[in-house]
## 1
Amino acid sequence: MRVSFDLDDTLFVDPEKFKTEKAPRFPFNKIYRERLRLGTVGMFKYLEEHDIDAWIYTTSFRSERYIRGLFGCYGIKLCEVVNGERHAREVQRDSRESLPSKYPGKYRIALHIDDDISVKQNGETYGFRVHIIGAENERWAEKIIGEIERIKETIK
């Protein structure tokens, strides 16, 4: 099973508004300024322990190397990274039709986690599952795990 996560305002959050994981140690804290939402490390450990492929799917144009490096500081191994450049190259390509900003179905992703309601609406239109993370919620990871388990039951 594959699960993808958006970055901005989903996993990367403002430490003034959200509880966050500890910053990476020096000098990585100077290279990687974004802060992960508290619970991200535990969530990704759960995914790894349950053989669930963890992907990042973002409209951001941060490089794959940068994203992998930041997550690596926390001991998180990502299966794949789809950034804005890869999405444009592999999904949008030369299509004249405007496709959604994210299209997890292209990559056989079973569940995408995002903060943007328009991504959920696109999921309903284009046939992919989206779980929305809202404002600060200390149980966000538990809710995602519950949704993953529910989906796993439906695809058995």
Note: The chain is about 35% helix and 15% strand.
## 2
Amino acid sequence: MIKFVPCAPDELPDNFKTDSSAAGYIGYDLSDGGKKCGECFFHLNGYSMNIDYVKSFDNDDDTVEGLIRSALNYGANRNVYLANYLAENGRNVADLLGFEINNGILTGEIPQLLAGSCCKHK
């Protein structure tokens, strides 16, 4: 089982540490002694958010999906409505979640992105 935990400020990369809008999640594989298995960093900006970095250390799409969904849920709980996916990794998972290209950027409305795949008619 993988547990997704919000990032402590000191766990953010150096380029995020001084940014008050930066947040993130760390994935821990509980079946492997709590080993760190992925990370996701993002920014909140009013009613929108940018997902800047997502990485599964084992290249596992399920971990990537969990990190993206954790970030989206974090934003939704803070009245964020739109999400932009700017990360280089995990774009295939972002596409499956329902992000669509708009002006060259993968973007989506968080309620639809968090809906199950049965609700997306894909």
Note: The chain is about 25% helix and 35% strand.
## 3
Amino acid sequence: MPKLTFEKQLSRLEEVVNKLEAENCDLDASVKLFEEGITLSKELSQKLETVKFKVQELKKKGSQFMATPFDTELAEDANGEE
């Protein structure tokens, strides 16, 4: 299964939070949702850190911008998928 884009992961995290806040889940379902939410949160944080690093590197290069690809497994392809 291909990994989800940042936006799709964020949307799924919002769904998980809404389900947990609804308080109509049993304990086992709530724990599974919580685990999924933690995983999504970590993945989203890692992606944001990668983007932050890229932006900082581009700012350092300034007017000497060079189109060199960053070799990272978190980079999304042209279709928005990893």
Note: The chain has a mean pLDDT of 81.
